[in-house]
Amino acid sequence: MATILECSELTKKYGSHRAVDNLNLQIERGRVYALLGPNGSGKSTFMKMAAGLIHPSSGKILFEGESVGKNSKAKTVYMPTESYFYSYMTWKDAGHYFADFYEDFQPQVYEQLLSAFSLEPKMKISKMSSGMMAKGKAALALSRDASLIMLDEPLNGIDIIARDQILETIQKYCSPTKTFLVSSHLVDDLERMTDDAIFMKNGGLVMCGKVDELTKHHGKTMTELYKEVYSDCVM
Ligand SMILES: Nc1ncnc2c1ncn2[C@@H]1O[C@H](COP(=O)(O)OP(=O)(O)OP(=O)(O)O)[C@@H](O)[C@H]1O
C-alpha cells in the first residue's frame, strides 16, 4: 500500500493556541478515511494544511513524498464547510469556474451528479437551501479526477436521502488511485462506508486504524467508540 499523505510532528498554532498539535499520521492511497472529532478538534485545520491552503507552524506534511505545494494542489480537492461562490453564480457558472481552474474537472460527471442530486444547472446558488448547497458543493468536488479528495462535513444539514446519495457517490468513485478523507460528526453514516477512522481531539491523534479492526478489537460499534473517546467533550 502506498502512502499518499504523511505528517510528522505537524503543528499549527493560532497565537498560542495549538489547533493541530504534534500530529503524526499516514494516509494510504485508495482508501476512504473518516476524520472524526468534536467541534474544534483540528479536523479542518489539518485538511487545510494537506490542501496547501495554510502552512504548518512546525513539523512536516508530505504529499506523495514531497512537500505540499503546487504539484500536490493540482491533485488535491478540499471541499470546505463554508460557501465560496460569487452571489451571481448558478450551478452552471460554478461548473465553468471549476473547469477554468482545474484541469481534472470532468463536466460530464458534474452534469450527471447535478441531475442525480436534483439540481438544475440554471439554479442560482445564492437561493439554495443549505441541503441543496451541500449537494452542489459535493457535486463540484466529486467531479474532479483528483488523487486526494477531502470533504469537510459533506453530510451536514442534509436529509437522509441526500446523505445516502453523497455516500453512495463517494463509494462509486472509490478506486485504488483515489483517497477520500471525510470529516463528519455523523459516525453512524460514515461507519457504513469508510475503511479507516482517524479520531482527533484537541489537535492531536487519539486513535486511528481500520474500522473493522477497531470495532472488532474494542468489541464496540464506531458510535460506541466515538462516545467513549469523546465522553469528556461537550458536543
Ligand atoms: N483562522 C483561525 N484563527 C484562530 N483560530 C482558529 C482559526 N481556525 C481554527 N481555529 C481554532 O483552531 C481550533 C481547531 O479548529 P478546526 O476548525 O480545525 O476544528 P474542527 O475539528 O474542524 O471543528 P468543527 O467540527 O467545529 O468544524 C479551534 O479551537 C478553532 O477555534
UniProtKB/TrEMBL annotation:
<dbReference type="Pfam" id="PF00005">
    <property type="entry name" value="ABC_tran"/>
</dbReference>
<dbReference type="InterPro" id="IPR003439">
    <property type="entry name" value="ABC_transporter-like_ATP-bd"/>
</dbReference>
<dbReference type="InterPro" id="IPR003593">
    <property type="entry name" value="AAA+_ATPase"/>
</dbReference>
<dbReference type="GO" id="GO:0016887">
    <property type="term" value="F:ATP hydrolysis activity"/>
</dbReference>
<feature type="domain" description="ABC transporter">
    <location>
        <begin position="5"/>
        <end position="227"/>
    </location>
</feature>
<keyword id="KW-0547">Nucleotide-binding</keyword>
<dbReference type="InterPro" id="IPR027417">
    <property type="entry name" value="P-loop_NTPase"/>
</dbReference>
<keyword id="KW-0067">ATP-binding</keyword>
<dbReference type="InterPro" id="IPR051782">
    <property type="entry name" value="ABC_Transporter_VariousFunc"/>
</dbReference>
<dbReference type="GO" id="GO:0005524">
    <property type="term" value="F:ATP binding"/>
</dbReference>
<protein>
    <submittedName>
        <fullName>ABC transporter ATP-binding protein</fullName>
    </submittedName>
</protein>
<keyword id="KW-0813">Transport</keyword>
